[in-house]
Amino acid sequence: MHNKKFLVTALFAIFALVLAACSGGSDDKPAKENEEGQEQSEGKEGGDLVVAVLSDAATLDPQTATDVPTAAVLVNVVEGLVTKDENDEIVPALAKSWENIDDLTWEFKLQEGVKFHDGEDFTAEVVKKNFERILDPEVAAPRAFLFEVIEEVKVIDDHTVQIITEYPFAPLLAHLNHPVGVMLSPALIEADYEGMKAGRQPGAVVAEGPIGTGMFKFKSWNPDDAIVLERNDDYWQEGANVDTITFKVVPESGTRVAELETGYAHLIEPVQPSEVTGIETSGKGTVDVTDGNSLSYVAFNTEKAPFDNPKVRQAISMLINTDEILTGIYDDYGQAAKGPLAPSVFGYSDKYPPLAHDIEKAKQLLEEAGLGDGFKTSIWTNDNPQRIETAVLLQQKLKEVNVDVEIEQMEWGTYLDKTANGEHEMFILGLSNPVGDADYFLTQLFHSKNKGASGNRSFYDNPEVDRLLDEARQEIDEAKRIELYEEVQKVLIEDAPMVYVYHQAYLTGVSNDIDGYWINSSGHYMLKDVKFK
């Protein structure tokens, strides 16, 4: 397994990219020597940073979004009360401190003098307004369940706010770090409600121009082409270095690599595992590898036959060798999953082993389910190359037990809509865990109340799992919470609503022309400190 967060050093000398217009211009400062005696240029403020990405954002309303491509962009525009640092620790953001007043009450002291990009003040009333929007059934934010425990947001004074919960809720701080829990301008929220009154969809006005307090401001969005951000020169903390960031949609992986090597892009994500060596030896960039806490999975629609039968789901799970996928498709970047949770997530347990790869047992289970002669089905995926390869591998494996699988690939937004509506039979998807707690991950993927767009696209419904999850989120004692999550994982391994395939490693191509980039364990680009050399 690869170490978390490291740069693979290029084998050739670093040189300046010839396309100065794309790289933010030349550096007029004199070079200095590093500890090894090699020339090293100082960072240069300004310039236009280009990030070539696989997929466009699905929306630019952070409070109704569900996808990583949206959050990866907006983390640089909007902020929440708390955030996580490079060590994955919760640290202050728009809240400078907090304390438990009692078992049900958290009090937050807010940063003073903070303004939104439209000049609106950030105050306790704004915090209240944002959580009311997130929890508003008319808005129907898919991730509202993260904060459904909140009974009241109470304004104490302009810069003090209390969050009062229905019951003691241990993961509240972790939930506040989720991309849905960010603060939008109160004027923008009002404009969005006016849009809803006029018949527009919730979030439509916000998506036209998100307004936060972050170090970058939204400038433009040309769907399926590019999103452009510009530096917020009035940022309440030390500001960003580059002038603009362009997130350019480049679906073809080879084209992204070419853009890195010619200077048309300074960051490319994702890099395919097979491309790492080429970038390493190009002399024009390095590959940043960061272990994530996400899960890549193959899921079943448990409301549709034959996948409403646990024996069928178990059989297919036994046909998939996750170690083979990790090595053959991901070149051993990341980690084969043993269950739904990554080892870095609170509540993870390896007490119960995964279903073993066993072709003969799989055949026996299909016989017992009355499907010994096989059946026809389909598997859906988006344009992610590894997911496509996984679908092909699964198609081949299921042929061994006379299951005929048709692969259907579709555009990202359509894919999310159709799987949310339950139109699929099998599908391949992933989920990141910015919260880092089992409650968010397991509740979203498996609780029956979250069927569809809220995350449970398997349409899984198990009263025992619901009970255990509800009990765990109300338990303050960490040891007891872990025991409850162990029981949940035991049921989920046995019941097999999905095949737990892989915990992703994020591979980013980084131009030798920049410094200061990192990506967090949820796949969000952290660009505040990026500088051109």
Q: How would you describe this protein?
A:
It is a single chain. By secondary structure, the chain is α+β, with helices and mostly antiparallel strands. The chain is 28% helix and 24% strand. The chain has an eight-stranded mixed β-sheet with strand order 1-17-24-16-4-15-14-13. A six-stranded mixed β-sheet has the order 19-23-18-22-20-21.
Considering the chains and any ligands shown, give keywords for the structure.
533 residues, alpha+beta, 8-stranded mixed beta sheet, 28 strands, 24% strand
Q: What's the short story on this structure?
A:
It comes from Savagea faecisuis. This protein has 533 residues and is α+β, with helices and mostly antiparallel strands.
Helix/strand layout:
Layout: E1 6-8, H1 20-23, E2 32-33, E3 39-40, E4 48-53, H2 68-74, E5 79-80, E6 82-84, E7 90-92, E8 95-102, E9 105-110, H3 124-135, E10 150-157, E11 160-165, H4 172-176, E12 182-183, H5 186-197, H6 204-208, E13 216-222, E14 226-231, E15 244-249, H7 253-262, E16 267-269, H8 276-280, E17 285-291, E18 295-300, H9 310-319, H10 322-328, E19 335-336, H11 359-368, E20 375-381, H12 385-399, E21 403-409, H13 412-420, E22 426-431, H14 438-446, H15 463-473, H16 478-495, E23 498-503, E24 505-511, E25 514-515, E26 518-519, E27 525-526, E28 531-532
Parallel strand pairs: 4-15, 4-16, 20-21, 20-22
Antiparallel strand pairs: 1-17, 2-3, 5-12, 6-7, 8-9, 9-11, 10-11, 13-14, 14-15, 16-24, 17-24, 18-22, 18-23, 19-23, 25-28, 26-27
Helix pairs in contact: 9-11, 14-15, 15-16
Family: Belongs to the bacterial solute-binding protein 5 family.
Organism: Savagea faecisuis
Protein name: Glutathione ABC transporter substrate-binding protein
